[in-house]
Amino acid sequence: MDKTHTAEFSQTDSIDLVLRTAQDQFVVSPQEETRLWVKNAEGSFERLCNTRVSLRTASLKSGQLVVMETRSKDGTWPSQQTRAGSSATKEEEEFHGQPGICGLTNLGNTCFMNSALQCLSNVPQLTEYFLKNRYLDELNFCNPLGMKGEIAEAYADLVKQAWSGRHRSIVPNVFKTKVGHFASQFLGYQQHDSQELLSFLLDGLHEDLNRVKKKEYVEQCDAAGRPDQEVAVEAWQNHKRRNDSVIVDTFHGLFKSTLVCPDCGNVSVTFDPFCYLSVPLPVSHKRVMEVFFVSMDPRRKPEQHRLVVPKKGKISDLCMALAKHTGVSPERMMVADVFSHRFYKIFQLDESLSTILDRDDIFIYEVSGRSSITENTREDVVIPIYLRERTPARDYNSSYYGLMLFGHPLLVSVPRDRLSWDALYHILLYRLSRYVTRPSSDDEDDGDEKADVEGGKNIPKPGNVAGGSSQDPGPEQAGPSSGVASGSRAPTDSSPGPSHWPQRTRRKHLFTLQTVNSNGTSDRSNFNEDTQAQPYIAIDWDPEMKKRYYDEVEAEGYVKHDCVGYVLKKAPVRLQECIELFTTMETLEKENPWYCPNCKQHQLATKKLDLWTLPETLIIHLKRFSYTKFSREKLDTLVEFPIRDLDFSEFVIKPQDESAPELYKYDLIAVSNHYGGLRDGHYTTFACNKDSGQWHYFDDNSVSPVTENQIESKAAYVLFYQRQDVASRLKTKTQPGQSDPPAPPAYDPISESMDVN
């Protein structure tokens, strides 16, 4: 039952005195976690967060009601349960499990947050810091860079609940709301990166728990020839003058950064703090590309090939790789990106392969060795060919037809001396002979006449330019697939324009020919040879003729070359190799030059990072996500990392204490995993319980025990390592006689209040 007491205070007394008085009045142990609420004039309650301020500063008035709230046994606050409007079942109330073995409910694409929280929750010294309420005295409510203590309190609530041993899983909705409030990028329920959330959370906890209440200005000093030891000590002291928290104590180390000017040779040495290492993965210089090879032999179906090419290679490298499989010379190949039945782009041999994405449909066409799409001196010209079908337009005028692209386009070599419509028709008929039936003369005449009658219009007369007709309905409609973006201009050629081509003989055909633009949607009958534009030719089919003579199943058929079964095996790499890459000298990119104080200008200097001191808990972020101007990919390379005895002695350049090797050896305590690709994926966690030493797998609200040989996988993304001397120190503290004073028996959660006079 609620109880009320009255007490008198001075306006200069602190809120902390009110809290201690309330604890005395209601016989609540100081070890119990309590907090105060004040009832305002509107009848609602407001938290008194900062207990270090006076009653006057907190604007407390005489006669106001102050309520003291005690944290429940399960780590929750009674007021939170009241707001949630849900009561725990009897089974939930009676549940007792291993502290820390507690799942987190997925609120909707929040597995990234759950994974980061589970990793951080299993950092022993940080969790003990919150469980033993040491954070309460260090909450910084006035830090302009912080979150007014709200992130630290929200995280503390999660830790208290997870380590109470009274929950199978908890719902982190309050924490999610706080994160979204202070970091708008995490608002809503889109998928994010667990490492990005972890970075924000560590920074937020640090600022909320920063022991430095007023930060002084500190200027970064260059070594200027001084000994490294002296400069490093100065840099760390300067860092601690502005940043002093449990996060700094646990996670911060020190880099040595060396920059060398390529012009004057000026060397700049600085020491910078870090919170985690983002290490690169060794990247393969090879790339696997899938292409379709279209032979000039019409009897051969297109072949699918899987080719291994240099990642930074050119189109010519792709052709040379295909030549090894087909025996066709690279000079007789043309490469095109086909999208929505069109040529999205026809590549030149010197273009970079980086412009081709893995999802692009790449066709490589065999052309005659005398062919060229740009050189006018060659004997043959390559003509891009599209396939279109006449379809009744959605119009009241039944004589109006639309045209829809279908099938795969072609690149056809035509001798310059045979650039006539009739010759082109027969060349195309030959190229299509695998899936276009050549009718008998009687069948053709009958079919043509039938098509003329049923279509209500004549097939275009041979004498008309580019297959046009005096009864043609005008500009054709674009088909449903006409919305593709035109990524490149049409290939250029100075061959005679269609208006100068010899006229076709008067004869009925299976299809008609039409000059079009590179999209295949516009009539180019008014072709102007001064534009020097390469003509694209469309093969237009009447539906009835297409149905009778065009075999769609055969046209779409292809065969797989033996190389399609080839898989580029990625050899596993050791974590130490990634760290070596991290400490390798590199040249700065053009987008990120260094200003040389000696040259007085920006320079592409060489930069080298070295490890000077390492933190108690080392976070290693494996940079699996690669982003370039043209591509984005996830590296699924298996990184082999040790569970125990990760030795950093070869990487730390600070003079070492050989009598204490445990200062450079680390044991794994948690792993954040990412399964899937760039656009979608799922995050989980492996973590070692600090009390039992047992490893568990956390998959949102599901938790299951695992063995150590299950931890290493291609999904490992963020690794948490604990220094061995810290582990020994924590074990010593938990031995009998070394632990903190035992906490008094827990009180039932009650709400107690007192009047302030």
Low-confidence stretches: 444-507, 526-532, 739-751
In CATH terms, what is the fold-level topology of the largest domain?
Answer: Cathepsin B, Chain A
**What do the pLDDT scores average to?**
81
- How many DSSP helices? 17
Rg, alpha carbons: 37 Å
The CATH class of the largest domain: Alpha Beta
In terms of structural class, how would the helical and strand content be classed? alpha+beta
Shape: elongated
Number of strands: 36
Strand content: 25-35%
Task: Determine the N-to-C terminus distance.
Answer: 23 Å
The H-level CATH homologous superfamily of the largest domain, spelled out, is Cysteine proteinases
Q: CATH architecture of the largest domain, please?
A: Alpha-Beta Complex
Could you give a short account of the major beta sheet?
8 strands, mixed
Domain tally: 3
Catalytic activity: Thiol-dependent hydrolysis of ester, thioester, amide, peptide and isopeptide bonds formed by the C-terminal Gly of ubiquitin (a 76-residue protein attached to proteins as an intracellular targeting signal)
GO cellular component, one term: cytoplasm
Function: Deubiquitinating enzyme that removes conjugated ubiquitin from specific proteins to regulate different cellular processes.
Main location: cytoplasm
